[in-house]
């Protein structure tokens, strides 16, 4: 999907919500465990109930790898279902990969070609030659971790190197990578106070912002400094939406919570909030 198409969807739906499919067999409604593929059944019901309220889905790959071949099959079925039935949805494989160039190329093939995701999260730590292989794919997006939502972000990301915080260096240096127009960045919603300075470095890039909902980040705070002319934000909530209800009404419970966030987004977009 092109960035222009993504922006078109955001405008059409008045939503920049990304729903995280962090599907955990210990948390899904127990009646689904009798199904042949409980992970896929859960994801399908959530997607069918919420797709009109969001513009993106983000399966976190750890939740699938945790179940071995069964989990990987459920992931394949989920991305296949999204691409076949809701091709307007932007899909994010949250895998946080990145390795020497030769290996990164294989990761890129796995997620962009074999599974056909629109985008993939990548750790920037190994530098230019670990990131550039992902950037060579047309209309595929590489989402680089800049300033993450967790406490450990303060261990390295905010530390200064030659007078500049590491996360700022990641933003600045990566702008010079070949095909850098295919880059987006992760900034945690819990780090909203940093967004003004982040926007000074990457005014036009899309930001994936996880950390509202279960981690307590504020949507309003994120929008105040993070939004740009094309909106430029994908705000993710996983547990807060998909586990809003743990009963037979789980899909409508998820839709209800997604709608609550979408309405808040709509109010911000039309300037009421
Ligand atoms: O790359 C991510 O998506 C990510 C980066 C980050 O800084 N913080 C973060 O929480 N995430 C992911 O976003 C999701 C957040 O889930 P909830 O806290 O349940 O909404 C999880 O899949 C995390 O792995």
TrEMBL record:
Domain of life: Bacteria
EC number: 4.1.1.23
This protein's UniProt keywords: Lyase
Protein name: Orotidine-5'-phosphate decarboxylase
Encoding gene (name): pyrF
